[in-house]
Amino acid sequence: MNETAKAAPRRSVPLWVQIIIWALLVGLLVIVAIGLNRSQQGQVQPGANIPSFSMPLFSGYELNGKTQFDLADYHGKVVMVNFWASWCKPCEQEAADLEQAWQYYKDSGKVIFVGADYVDTEPEARAYLQKFGITFANGPDLGTKVSQLFRIKGVPETYFIDQNGVLKYAQIGPFSSVDEIKAIIDPLLKQQQ
Amino acid sequence: MLAEIGYGIIVVAFIVALYSVGAAIYGERTKSPAVVESARRAMLLLWPLISLAAGTLIYLLITNHFEVSFVYEVTSREMPTYLKITAWWGGQAGSLVFWSWLMSAFASLVTLRKWERDREFLPWVIVVTALTTAFFLGLVVFYENPFARYWQTAGGQIVTSMFAPAATATVYFPSDGNGLNPLLRHPGMIIHPPMLYLGFVSFVIPYAFAIAALITGRTDDRWIRITRRWTLIAWLFLSFGLVLGSRWAYDVLGWGGFWGWDPVEIAALMPWLTGTAFLHSVMIQEKRGLLKQWNMILIILTYSLVIFGTFLTRTGVLSSVHAFAQSSIGPVFFVFIGFTFITSIALLIYRWPDLRGETEMKSLLSREALFLLNNLLFMSVLVICFWGVVFPIISQIFTGQTVTVGPPFYDRATAPLFAALMFLMGIAPLSTWKRSTVGTIGRVLWKSALAALVITVILFFTYTHNIIALVGFYLIALVLLVTLYEFWRAAWARSKATKENVVAALWNLFGRDRRRYGGYVIHISMMLMAIGILGINAFQIQTQGTLALNNSLTLGNYSIKYESIAQFTAADNRQVTRAVVNVYDKNGNYLGQLYPRIDYYPDAQQNMTIPGERPTLQDDLYVLLVDWQPASANGATFKIFVNPLVNWLWIGSLIFFVGIIIAAWPDRDPEYASARSRARHAEQPSAAD
Amino acid sequence: MNRNLRIALYVLALGIVLAGLWAVTVHAQNPTPTDDEVNRIAHQLYCPVCENTPLDVCPTEACRQWRDLIRQQLSEGWTEAQIKQYFVQQYGVRVLSEPPASGLNWLVYVLPPLIILAGAFLLFRAMRGWIKPPADSSAVGSGEEAPKDEYVERLEEELKKRK
After folding, report:
1. Is B342–A33 a contact, with Cβ atoms under 8 angstroms apart?
2. CA angle, B667 as apex, B662 and B673 as ends, to 5°?
3. Is residue A46 part of a domain?
4. Does B287 touch chain C (CB under 8 A)?
5. ipTM score here?
6. Can you give the residue range of the structural domain that contains A21?
7. Domain presence at residue A48
8. What tens digit of pLDDT does each residue of B79-111 get?
């Protein structure tokens, strides 16, 4: 980039060259600063508004008969988004607990569980879902769009969005019991819309 | 106790470094040599201080002080002592101490030189080197402290802190450590980082002199003459760091290759590119007084790329297999980079008019013109590398899309540039300063060009029909022949003139112009390396198959037979699964045995796939044990590569070392600058306004 | 269009799974693709979870699954382009070893040549300026011989005599 500066055999660096050099430098620094900021900021923090997103669902794991999950459709409900993958060993620890929690809440109609299968292969993902008897909605995170939205660092990670679309809690790593999950969801159900 | 002492020494060193910066500036401003001398002595104090702190850290590492979190993270009881020592630079915090230690050593060495005629540079060289050292020490003091310990609070929580976080907290002693990342336990990885750091650190010295020259306005080529050898040494270490890193990747990562155009590799390559361009273009300034502005740009760029690369790989901005874990040093490092870039460019623009060239160029074929072309090509490769590394960050910001800029991009973009560089390497030694014509170059070139063509034709009929490879071989042959012809021509002429025999003449020739002939040896070594690089890129073949015991897999001229497999625990507690395969040539002759293995490190819970290699000058048979099933008829999966000519890369790197030693060997006149050139600078009217 | 495409893809993917199962039960009528065929395609794809590691050499469990997926797709007669397309759809463009030349990504391919050409232009303009210096400075230039490596000079003299 500095090559621009080389051409000046005149007495001092022309102003326009100086401007270009400084502009390039500032541009580079800004880009690096944003990149640095991204790499340091980590996952979406509680309190953030989650913009609506959609993701397809595996057949057999649809939500209310829809083959696609749209966050906007579930305004007024507590939404739990769980990121997992079939190759992820720690995910297996929490799989049964998640399903048990879903069984506990599903009839209330106030809570939605959705599993986002992070960079996975479908046959293995299905085998995993079957192995742990998962019945709540699940779909692939196509093109890692959803995981990038939450800026996840790994799997499993679980996010709880309240009735107003605000992220209330982020669980990094697996849950160790059903009660842990309930302890997060119950206060959200009590809160006023 | 020891941890506190170590940390205390680092804090003292940090303060001493800051004092040195302050005193140097103050002494220079007030024109008081005594204060500058005080700054110099403070500078000289740094290395012993950091050595003490480093000694403390090494003692903690060797003696399993796992209450120190850094020791816990990088060592374990099972590790042999030498690995515990080298674990010093196996983690972020320790490697920052290591970096400061090397930095202070180089800074001390340079401050110990005789300064008589260069007094005015001294304060500013101290400022730059001491400030850089202070920055890295500051990172250790405030952000990445290798002496921080684990504390257990009254509530039972474990926290990492230098001092007791609460009065009731007690030091927590884990029973064993995490162990060093297995990837870093390879001998190549033990030497590779120090080499790379040495290269990085020693580029600070020419940069410091350049900045001193800019500040003082003494913009003749004195700073270049003083730092010529430093630059060569820096370049040597950087080159060796790159080669060792490649060797490590080849032996440990199990890719079957040595260079993956990974962002971290590129971050180390970029200063090498500008450094190489600098080495060439300073010669133009020394011989012809041209390009002062450009040389300043190059050395500033080189140093900037050193710290920029360090920044990218150490702060998690780039993610890569080689990158350090995410760290908190990002923002302060960013400020340091911004400060360095801005001050350097501001100084450069301020002094720009004083840096104009002395003489004019005579011909587009002169050596200086060819060197400029060489610079243009190196800069072009740099632009490609830089853009490839930065683009994913830009894409992420503007489109939210993560992209990979991988080997196909770099291969395609840089291959023609490297070919052009090789061509230049072929004709530049034949050109002369100031004036050459197509005729003068052609007269000496045609024989080599013809011979290279003959070699290429032979290769076409005997070895390969691959056009790109043939072009590559042609250029390699051309450069080798031209360079050897130059040796022969000069030795022959000298032996005629001095009545020495040709060997003695050659020897004395090296003695008379080490830089020129050392440079030619380096060119030859580069061409040998190019043979290896071309070989693996153009002719690598591979296959993979699952074999039952006593079954064979064939690839190229080799076939391997799966003999047996065994599992055992090695002395350092790694669990080794080692296969034994017999190697046969295509006629079924037994060639030897290879032992590809998978090492499992229980402390780090990581697998390493170590190849079995059979190196020859023609090719390298590289066998990986990919997978195996304990008790089944289908025993083990092997992946085999045949990497033709790759060993020339390693041979070339040894010759390269010889070449640099020749070029950098001290002259009898320690000041290097001849009386002649001094006279020239005395005559030159000061360009300052 | 995207939604339809996705649904179509899922139907397709499901079809493949079923077909795969069927193929296994009837003892694979298609010849099983060799490791080499799988690796050839895997080499051009990048592991979505490990940074900058080609899929053919990545040792993780996840990558093993992806290689198996490629094998399965190959045995179903998918072309290389289709497999790559599928991976991009599933895991994002980062699986490709180079960004596809569309949108902002054009910059990857366009900017370096532009900068290099600009650099070359500046260099040649500057060199032209040096070669034809203004009259007064050329007089100085010819008067003052630049210092030469005297030894090399002597050597070259010597060579000239021999010719």
Report:
1. no
2. 120
3. no
4. yes
5. 0.83
6. 2-41
7. no
8. 888 889 989 988 889 999 999 999 999 999 988
